[in-house]
Specification:
Blueprint (H helix, E strand, L loop, with lengths): L43 E2 L2 E2 L1 H18 L3 E8 L2 E9 L14 E3 L4 H14 L21 H6 L2 H5 L22 H6 L18 H15 L3 H10 L13 H4 L6 E4 L2 E5 L8 H4 L2 E3 H11 L10 H8 L17 E5 L2 E10 L2 E8 L4 E7 L5 H19 L10 E3 L2 H7 L1 E5 L7 E7 L2 E6 L2 E8 L5 E5 L2 E9 L2 E4 L2 E5 L10 H4 L3 E4 L4 E7 L2 E6 L3 E4 L1 E4 L2 E3 L10 E6 L5 E6 L2 E4 L19 H10 L14 E3 H4 L4 E2 L21 E3 H14 L4 E7 L4 H10 L22 E8 L28 H16 L2 E4 L2 E7 L12 H5 L1
Helix pairs in contact: 1-12, 2-6, 2-7, 15-18
Family: Belongs to the peptidase M15D family. Belongs to the beta-lactamase family.
Keywords: Cell wall biogenesis/degradation, Dipeptidase, Hydrolase, Metal-binding, Metalloprotease, Protease, Signal, Zinc
Function: Catalyzes hydrolysis of the D-alanyl-D-alanine dipeptide.
Length: 802
């Protein structure tokens, strides 16, 4: 798949109204329009009736969008020389007032490259450019750090990603929000070393296609966006397509959404990339359907000669005659014995696939307004292509497969760390569960395991795709017929000291690079989804693995005069180190919105919300009376808390009896591992929740309860806690400190060390097994099942004890 163009931010002024797939927020139902044909007769075309397929696809899309929580989705089917169907599902705007349609405009990312390459081929036809002459013939200023290498690079190599240059330019790269322009972007390549010798290895490069765009400008005497608009888009009738943002498209453009493994969706940034020819295109599936007709030579307007188009769709060959994955821009592959051409696109908040079977004259174009969903979209596209082939061959449609969550009892039995069998290259995979989700960390991605609704077979099914089978065999895990054996559940060793200050976050809010440790090896989590193990080359210098987005490139950590790490240069892009949370042992503090006296005044004059209905009588029970070995560190009875204020007169912990007894059970079970529970907070009077809310800045309110609804702490059904070592009485270090208002507090925050995440997961599993659920933003906060059955309380500890 092509480069994923993307980003996100932990806190944003606009938050998504549909739920996070990990958060357990109440579902805001997506209104889905039915898949429909452009014209009444389009579904029944040239003697082929596609209506059953169209209805099947609509049912699949509705179900999948709800499961994967996709905000909007559009799809167009092309067959028999026309668009046979075009539709939208969900809503294109955050307020959910405008239904998505076939005309909804999406940012289509790397599909941009195909339009740039069509423009290139037009100028080749006019003898303004030559695919096989060095780029410097048309762009004398083009260079990289190795002059001899620069002189060898041709336009053909750039179109086929065989030029051996970096993936991203130092300026104007995918991460750079400054919109520097094409010339500055290409000029910044001058100091980048070659990754490979030209034509020796395929190395996908957005920077390379930007060089093509600048060559188009030079040869045409016009800006790249203007040239493509006048000579490609307008002739093909692509009226809702442009390389530039404009008011005409704005009203049709979908809002894009980002997400991460550990956090809900948030609004995507909207800046244009410096590598514009490679990724700045806006378009609709209906316009891209017109483009697909051109590719299949079925459009009434020809913008290229037949031989030029044929050359674009044929895979290139290596110097020794082996086929390449790319033609001129187009990715070329096999689809069940049929030649498939097209491209995917992924840019901040959007995912798009253009899939064409040119020899069968069928195509499907689909787009979503959620980042990182290209493989999911490909699954929908494959169902459409298979269906159109079946219709044309008078065959039955294959029923789609649906899945459901793995039952918790089965999920628990799968949880653990596994390694490949002896004699194979060592590879470690981890299986863990949280709520009703069973997660697999394997290779590059974190995946979700679900159960097939028809057979009960375990498969990977999430936004990244579907189909890999998972089977448990005693202490073995079998993943697509490869066997892994369960390892000991002992705590991982401490991280190497020399790596400790490298771990952290780097870069921007919209696109954060994480450096973390996994299973004894430093890893980079880049572009939100891609885990890459790093090989240490020298002190503060590491290499990306020989696969993925950045193969052949390195990370170099930079330090200031005092030795503090300040940035990492990753694949020629500078990522500044970010300040996140607090240093180990320090207590997180906020700047209060109001003075303490005013907070007390407001809380004393307010009353808890009125609640109607039948509730259980309160049975608040002091935890240490059930088991005195439970440790307490009640921060709100001291000034050692996020507000520097004493809220409780006594350091005591109460909970409703069923919750208290469940916690004691966990504490006693943990004794087998020489661990125990340390309680930071339990029952909390409502007036304290009111003070927390009024004091906390709005951007941090995810970490405090809204007094208008009351807190589960107020009901005596929530515990804030951590683990301690029974021998040393020391608190076990976690990824973040208690009450740290930062993303490091998220239960699935990916950073830190393997040991820190191990203990965080151990605590969560122990509590969830006993009937508690972790809060989506705080690894230490657990709500007891049935908390709704108890009223909000406002008694002080002294009144409670009496």
């Amino acid at each position: 798949m092509n480069h994923k163009l993307l980003s996100r931010h932990f806190v944003h002024k606009r938050s998504l109204a549909f739920p996070s797939w990990l958060a357990g927020i109440a579902l805001a139902f997506l209104a889905l329009t039915a898949l429909h044909a452009d014209e009444p007769s389009a579904a029944n075309s040239a003697g082929h009736d596609y209506s059953q397929l169209i209805e099947q696809l609509a049912q699949t899309i509705r179900s999948e969008m709800e499961q994967k929580q996709i905000p909007s989705f559009s799809i167009a089917l092309v067959a028999d020389g026309k668009v046979i169907s075009s539709a939208g599902f969900g809503f294109q705007d955050a307020e959910k007032t405008i239904p998505a349609s076939g005309k909804t405009v999406y940012r289509v990312g790397s599909i941009s490259k195909l339009l740039t390459d069509v423009a290139l081929m037009q100028l080749v036809e006019q003898d303004e450019l030559d695919l096989d002459q060095p780029v410097q013939k048309v762009l004398p200023e083009f260079k990289i750090a190795d002059d001899e290498h620069s002189k060898k690079i041709t336009l053909r190599q750039l179109t086929q990603h065989r030029a051996g240059i970096v993936r991203e330019s130092p300026v104007g790269n995918y991460f750079d929000p400054t919109e520097p322009g094409l010339k500055a972007t290409v000029a910044s390549l001058a100091n980048t070393p070659p990754v490979y010798e030209p034509d020796t290895r395929t190395k996908y490069s957005n920077a390379g296609v930007s060089v093509i765009g600048l060559a188009v400008e030079q040869a045409a005497g016009s800006s790249h966006p203007n040239y493509v608009q006048q000579h490609v888009l307008e002739p093909l009738g692509m009226t809702h397509t442009s390389f530039e943002k404009n008011e005409a498209l704005a009203e049709h453009t979908a809002d894009g959404w980002m997400w991460g493994y550990d956090r809900p969706a948030f609004a995507a940034p909207e800046f244009l990339l410096g590598t514009g020819p490679a990724g700045n295109l806006y378009s609709s599936v209906e316009d891209l359907a017109q483009f697909s007709l051109f590719v299949m030579d079925q459009h009434p307007t020809k913008v290229l000669r037949d031989n030029s188009l044929t050359e674009m769709l044929q895979p290139g060959v290596t110097p020794d005659g082996k086929p390449l994955p790319y033609g001129i821009g187009f990715r070329v592959s096999d689809f069940h014995g049929h030649r498939r051409v097209g491209h995917g696109g992924a840019v901040y908040g959007f995912s798009t696939q253009l899939e064409i079977l040119p020899d069968e004259n069928i195509a499907v174009i689909a787009a979503s307004s959620l980042d990182g969903t290209n493989n999911w979209i490909t699954r929908i596209c494959n169902q459409a292509l298979e269906g159109m082939l079946a219709v044309q061959n008078d065959q039955d449609l294959t029923p789609p497969v649906s899945t459901e969550p793995v039952p918790r009892s089965r999920a628990r039995s799968l949880a653990g760390v596994y390694s490949s069998m002896p004699g194979e290259a060592s590879r470690t995979v981890t299986v863990d569960w949280i709520g009703d989700r069973l997660l697999l960390w394997k290779g590059t991605f974190q995946r979700e395991i679900r159960s097939r609704s028809d057979t009960g077979e375990l498969v990977l099914d999430d936004r990244f795709g579907f189909g890999t089978s998972i089977r448990q065999d005693q202490s073995f895990l079998v993943i697509d017929d490869k066997t892994y054996t369960r390892l000991s559940d002992a705590p991982p060793p401490e991280i190497q000291d020399e790596w400790r200050d490298l771990i952290g976050e780097y870069g921007w809010d919209h696109n954060t690079l994480y450096i973390l440790e996994r299973h004894g090896q430093l890893h980079a989590l880049i572009e939100w989804f891609y885990y890459y193990p790093l090989d240490e080359v020298a002190e503060d210098r590491f290499a990306f693995p020989d696969h993925g987005l950045y193969h052949g490139e390195e990370l170099i950590f930079r330090r200031d005069d005092s030795g503090e790490v300040t940035e990492v240069i990753a694949a020629q892009v500078a990522f500044q180190k970010r300040e996140v949370g607090t240093k180990a042992g320090e207590t997180f503090k906020i700047k209060r919105e109001l003075p303490v006296d005013k907070l007390h005044e407001l809380a004393d004059s307010a009353k808890p919300p009125r609640e109607e209905g039948n509730f259980r009588p309160s049975e608040l029970t002091e935890l240490t009376t059930l088991d005195p070995s439970i440790e307490l560190d009640i921060r709100y009875a001291t000034t050692n808390n996020f507000m520097d204020t004493v809220f409780y007169q006594q350091p005591r912990a109460f909970a409703q009896r069923p919750a208290a007894e469940a916690a004691v059970k966990v504490h006693q079970e943990l004794k087998k591992q020489n661990l125990g529970l340390l309680i930071h907070d339990a029952y909390r009077p409502w007036r304290v929740t009111k003070m927390f809310w009024d004091a906390t800045p709005s951007k941090m309110k995810n970490f405090v309860a809204n007094p208008a609804q009351g807190s589960r702490h107020n009901r005596g059904c929530a515990l804030d806690l951590t683990l301690f070592d029974r021998t040393t009485q020391e608190v076990i270090p976690m990824v973040s400190g208690y009450d740290e208002f930062s993303p490091r507090s998220f239960p699935l925050y990916p950073g830190g060390t393997q040991r820190e995440r191990y203990y965080r997961g151990l605590l969560r599993r122990a509590m969830e097994t006993a009937g508690f659920q972790v809060y989506e933003f705080e690894w230490w906060h657990f709500d007891f099942d049935g908390w709704q059955k108890y009223r909000i309380g406002n008694l002080s500890f002294e009144e409670t004890a009496n």
